[in-house]
Amino acid sequence: MQKPRYTRLPLVTAKTAQLEHERLKSLINNMGDGVIAIDEHLKVASFNGAALNILDINATLTGKPITSVLKLVDKNNQALDVREIITSSKTSQTSREWKLLYPDGSKASLYVSIAPVRLGYGQRGQKGYVILFRDITREKSLEEERDEFISVVSHELRTPITIAEGNIGNAEFLLQKSGLKNESVQEGLKQAHEQINFLSSLINDLSMLSRAERGKLTIEIEKINAHQLVNELAANYRPQAEAKHLELRTDIDPHLELLSSSKLYVREILQNFITNAIKYTQKGHIIIGAHAKQGGVEFYVQDTGIGISKTDREKVFDKFFRSEDFRTRENSGTGLGLYITMKLARLLHANMDFASELDKGSTFTIFIPNLQ
Ligand code: ADP
């Protein structure tokens, strides 16, 4: 049998590899982001200078269990199981914002990214993970200040807008009652009313958004009569639908039981679906439905409207997204409704979905589970 032949690595290649290694090392060491590589026993294998800086440690980390080095808490200051977070990122990269807890109790906001890797070369390299983290405390506090500002401004604007809305409504009513026919005044008041209503819904969205972003939304669970809620909503929105010659129907399961959830948020979610259905439907009908399902109630709002294109379907829940379709742009909107709806749905542990076909219509469905 022929002996295998071993060839020595040419000196130049070894030198190049060494150089490459040094370069990589210095690159990682000069990064502003903290990098820690850990082995499969979750012990630190290597780290860079920024990691020490961010963690505020001035001793080597090598060999230390990551659970003693990286202490994370969530936004409610609940301690997180770092071991669980790391091992659950087995197949893909996980990126999240968490808070780092220092031994003296102070905290820093971190953007953490974890990816499973092989430490070493080739398939047989030892398994491990790379944790990349960035201190985003400054960005976070700016963001918090911005949300606080939006919250205060929207709160302050609410009173004058409500007063203006009431007065315009009164003026319209008095003009109609007086029998005076002045079309330009009538038209002016109508437009002012529409704009003030838009402003009011914008302020409402902004205030809800800033509270949702700051994690300030609290849930008050109560017993909801879903049958009654759907009927109320249908009665409230029917005039708006009929003004566009749209038929607004309900489809209510007679076996509905009381639902335990936040009435305020369930109503807000359904209102967002219904106002969209009315805005984005030019002819046909809208159905508001509620059906009993194991552990909760499934609501849906169906329309025969303009529908949502394939490319837009992925984006409708994004903050400030509005379709470029001119039929969307004919209607006023902020692009915040569905984003807020998604936040509220998460808060209620609800499952949301939608089906839509361009020029045929859309159906938004949400399953609201009973909460304790
Ligand atoms: P807004 O209605 O204020 O623009 P939303 O967040 O409620 O914002 O909706 C985002 C976008 O999703 C809308 O601008 C529109 O393009 C699309 N969309 C939402 N609901 C419907 C619907 N029922 N029919 C067609 N398009 C819709």
Summarize the amount of helix as a percent range: 40-55%
Terminal-residue CA separation: 75 Å
Radius of gyration (Å): 29 Å
What's the β-strand tally?
13
List low-pLDDT spans. Answer: none
Q: Can you write the helix and strand succession as a string?
A: HEEHHEHEEEHHEHEEHEEHHHEE
Q: β content, as a range?
A: 15-25%
Strand order of the largest sheet: 2-1-6-5-4-3
- The structural class is alpha+beta
**How many helices in DSSP terms?**
11
The coarse overall form would be elongated
Largest sheet: 6 strands, antiparallel
Residue-averaged pLDDT:
89
Q: Which hetero ligands occur in this complex? A: adenosine-5'-diphosphate
Q: Mind explaining what this structure looks like?
A:
Helix content is about 45%, strand content about 25%. The strands form three sheets. It has a six-stranded antiparallel β-sheet. A five-stranded mixed β-sheet has the order 8-10-11-13-12, covered by helices on one side. The protein is built from eleven helices and 13 strands. The model has no long low-confidence stretch (mean pLDDT about 90). It is of the alpha+beta class. Strand 5 and strand 6 form a beta hairpin. It has helices at about 10-30, 50-55, 65-70, 80-85, 135-180, 185-215, 225-245, 265-280, 310-315, 325-330, 335-345; strands spanning about 35-40, 45, 70-75, 95-100, 105-120, 125-135, 220-225, 245-250, 260, 285-295, 295-305, 350-355, 360-370. The longest helix has about 40 residues, at about 135-180. The termini are far apart.
